[in-house]
Amino acid sequence: MDHGNDSSSDVPADILVESITQALSGNKIGLRNLWGQRNYFPDRDRTKLITKDAIRKALPSATTNLVDYIHNYASKTFSMVLMAIEGRKPRLEAMQAFYFHGLRDSEHLPVPNIAAKDCCEHSWQKSDREKCHSKCTASLRGTCKHLQVYNCFHHSCWDITRFYKFWFHQPSFVMQHFNTKVFQHHNISDDRVLPFLPREGMEPIAGGFGKVYPAKMLVDYLIDREGLIDVHSTEEINIAIKVLKPDEQGRYNLEEEWERESNAHKDLNGLDTHLIKAFAAFRYRGDFCLLLEWADGGSLQSLLKQELRPFLTKEAILELLDQLVGLANAMHLMHNKDFLHPVRANSFESFRSQTGDDRSVDAVSESRADQSVVPVIPQAITVTSEGSDVGLVPKISIEPPKDLTDSDGRPEKSFENWRHGDIKPANILRFKGKDVHGKDLWLGTLKLADLGRAKQRNGITRYQTKQEVDNWRSEAHEAPDIHVNPHASMSRLYDSWSMGTVIFNLIVWMLYGKQQLHNFTHTTDRYGGEGSPYWTRRYRTSAEVSAMAKLWMSHILREDIECNRPEGTVMGDLMKLVRDELLVIDLPPLDSRDIHKAEKGQRSNAARLCDRLKEIRERAHKDEEYLFTGNDRSGMQPPPSGDAAVAEITVMRLETVADQKVSGLLSPNAAEDRALNTRQRNTYTHGLEDKWLYEDDNHFARSIMELDEVTKAELAPDDDESDFCKTCQSFKAMSLKFFTRSVPDLDRSCPLCQMLKGCVERLGLDLGEPLVLDRSGGSYITPKTGRAVLRVCREPQPSYPSHFGTEGIPVGLPLLSHAGDSAHVAILKAWLRDCDNSDQHKRCRLSKSVFVPKRLLQVEKNSRWSKVIETASHLSDKSVDYLALSHPWGKASSTNVHFKSDKDNIKKRMTRIRDAELPLTFRDAVEMARKLEVQYIWIDSICILQKTDTDPGDFQEEAKSMESIYASAYCVISASSAEGMNSGFWSDERLKGTAIQLPQAGKGDLPATYLCDTIDDFQGDVLDGPLNERGWALQERALARRTIFFTKTQTYWECGQGIRCETLSKLTNQKVKFIGDSNFPSYANSPEGRGRGAQEFLFEELYADYSRLKFSLLTDKPIAISGLEQRLTRAIRTPSGAGIFIKFWGRCLLWKRNDPEVTELVRISSGTIGSKVRMPPSWSWMAYEGGISYLQPPKGRTVWNEKAIRLRLTGSGEISWLFAKDELGFSAPIKSFKEGENTADGDYQLTYDNPNESKSKQKKCVIIGSVQDVGHAEKGIHYVLVVSPVATKGSSNTWERIGAGKLHGRFIQDVNAVSVSAEIV
């Protein structure tokens, strides 16, 4: 299509375009591990390139006024026109149109997609376009929904292709600005580019509600009107980007959590130097984000975990005092914000936008200065009564009596305050600094951070009558207030307790170091009752300071020479402050706790804490011996821990726990002693994101492509450039990050057009809809669906000029070789070799294994036969490399005969098995073992003797070793696309992919670049493949240290370092990595996974997925996961059995039929299983055919019925419950309940395992856990198992499970009464 181009004489413009292209290619922006990176055009380069002289040369016919307009107001727009339009004349017409309509960079960029449906009435067809100076029809009608200024695109020089080129270039030219005065809440458009760069070598930090990404921000794009950020003169500053993550179980609303935290920052920003500063909150690409100042010293928690601590010196103690005073003052200011800083309450002005929001004059002028700044949202609505609209921040509004005044004589009804709600070492950040002499401070500046649990209040605590619930606090450092009184509201004194635990941690660490601080928490973990390391529950409605905390405070004050000086010391008085005023259970009366000092024996508020710390600091400056005694601490003994501590605590409840060992019996007595430690429940979130990402693997890919076998295979097309149409001949993937093509313009004879046409067909685009593709690394993605539709890769060629931008295109193979040929095998060997030798893969390797299976298939090299050997008699070396095959048996048929060893044929097979006798899948496996030069392979149906009519075989015995068989294999090979023994490893589909060599590449210094079909799909080829529908495959993949997956499209490699594709791409996915981990389940004991919630998520996801899989023999269901269960048992360090872990016993028992997907659960018959292996009981999901899911009792608020239930689990890390000496046991009180229909309000929600059979059965229930008012079980919700009597058992009091759910107390008869226990089988 010709638009009157006169490109032959447009050399100056072409030079300018090439300069812009080079600037784009040489500048990357964005976070690779978050939103990806793309090229951008920096303002400094634009200023340098788009000069008046350059404009005149590019547009010789431009008037002086037009040149001045472009230079002063539209240089970004001009740059994009140069990239989008070819030819001097149409470029000039475009800029004249912009000038005529008054379009300016600062006011009208970015341009919206006015070509979208129902936005613009203008026809984009050439025959119907008129020059805008003559007023086109659409402009005259005035019916377009976009701003009138965008009528400039009605000009005849614009067609749909040019507009989309202009529109898709915008993100690289129009960077997002941030203004600290306008604290953003609105969404940022997904196509905007954010001015962030990664901090190399720094990984994201996972937290309870999200991740914090270390990043750098370009200062050019920060408008800091508030002076919050110390920019100095640098081009970039270090920042932290906090990205909140959703809760997959729906336990909190992500947007509400973001609004809560962002509004807290908005209101508290700049209030005090010891409060973290934030300068933006925004939503981008579905993520809810906060921009925060970067703490270069990490968190206080990370400091406390360091081995080195400061020597006790005067300087160190004074610095500690300064920071404690600062933290306490920051907390005091939060608690009394409007009293102390009435002006700060409205420091961020609100304004009225075009839709009617309040807008200040300053905000209007600034928004006009740069329209790319995100507008502010209206301020939060105050919620004052039930049923009101929820505001942006949870507020509790109170109306005290009008005549009530505060201590300054002001009406108390104007008293607004904030409570932090989650003060702990992890939420106190360190900012490095120097003293007046230029010496590094050991502690730096400490700041309260993470305002995610902060709550705002109107009024004072004594007038709050509603119960306040926060299920997401970090419970290790929380106060006992609402635990012992669920009706209580969390006052600001909650923060006082938490600050007391922080000061306690600092004192212990400074006096004794990291190990003793660990000993304190470890002892409370091991021996503590229900509560935290600092308090324990007494009965249901009271608490006391924990015996361990009392012991340590008493010991330090009595025995430590830095604390027991009669005249007092700083460290001693700090500990007394903690003991006497902070870690105190009793609270002041409601009418005095906010503005008056507490009486002796009551917890102090922030004002009192500030005063006491300042008193200590003032005395320290006057009395050097009070500041620091200087005594020799070389013989100082720390407080006792472990058993020694328990021996000293003789009057506390911990005395019954001293000899209590980890046991599988949860009895009434043991239940109280082993009540779930609240500290172990400090988080209910996890870091397992289900998101596929590409990783840079160019170094390894280059080494593959340099192999002789791969080079000789010639796995690349060689297209003649003359075959391409004129448009495609100019295609440059290296510099073209995105492009559009009109579907009718695709040339049938052009190979690139035909590849694009295939994309159009797969996407189902209309004829008039342009094909729009955006390149991200090695993939071209359509913004319409977010799907990768094409792959781009290149040859390794280190000599190409860097400005061509090929660093974004990965090295890779455009075509695959024939399965099993030398090039294919060379890639597989390279995977193994890299994993064997690379330091990055140390966790994937084991030292020579001492375990070998009972039998192996010995593969004879350079032959067509193999044989079964018994390893005990045939192998002198008990540590050999062997492969293990993961495959489906499939349903036995004439075309899928099961090839099995048994007592009758094993002797013959120990002599010879010809390859021709083997089914195709086994034949391919044996041949692959030969090619990989591994002499032995383990195949289950050949190496385990199967059952016959006259012989039981040895499956039951070998099943005990299944974990070791796969874990000890040199590598597992998986027939992922096979559906039976005769399917084979691969198909002809792997050769159907197409690829073309792009024009303008492979010449001179440029590496050859290829466009290919996208075939990297581990999710579809492996995880959703036929083999993964089989129950045994889950365990085989999880237990393997590394696996090679043979699929119908290509071959994949998986180990602890991620997933590699035969195309040489590398993939990663955190959630998928959990099962693919070479040391499964290491995540359960990682920093992200140690929390109780993360471990609960792991077993619930694992078991729910496993329950849906298929089995040739249903009785294999408990056996095929026994190896994983043992691994989890060792990792979590808790007894187990039949899918139940004693640590999570309540939640484990509360599984249900996955309704409505599964209409009934069918009990698996035990008739076909031998006597050596137990079948699971009715209360285990392993006893049924069909998928399950788990009930979700509220985290942190469910009281488990531990005292009434006896549960014996016999599995351990050494032996499965299937083979243990003792049987599983479960007894519990049963109660009658009123039968009825499920109710919409959730008060009556029961799911029966088999609904039809359950109708006629007698039913009672077992209460597993309850969410209730203290002492009023009839008013609470109870999570129950439904049971029915078993007629075949001798005892009349034997029952079996038939369902599960929840019941309100009013449906349960005599819910408070003591009931007779029954055995549940």
TrEMBL record:
Q: What is the lineage of its organism?
A: Eukaryota, Fungi, Dikarya, Ascomycota, Pezizomycotina
- Span list, region Disordered: 392-417
Which SUPFAM superfamilies has this protein been placed in? Protein kinase-like (PK-like) (SSF56112)
Which GO molecular function annotations are given, in alphabetical order?
ATP binding; protein kinase activity
Q: In what residue span(s) does the Protein kinase domain sit?
A: 198-583
Locations of Basic and acidic residues compositional bias?
A: 400-417
Q: What is this protein called?
A: Protein kinase domain-containing protein
Q: Which Pfam families match?
A: HET, PK_Tyr_Ser-Thr
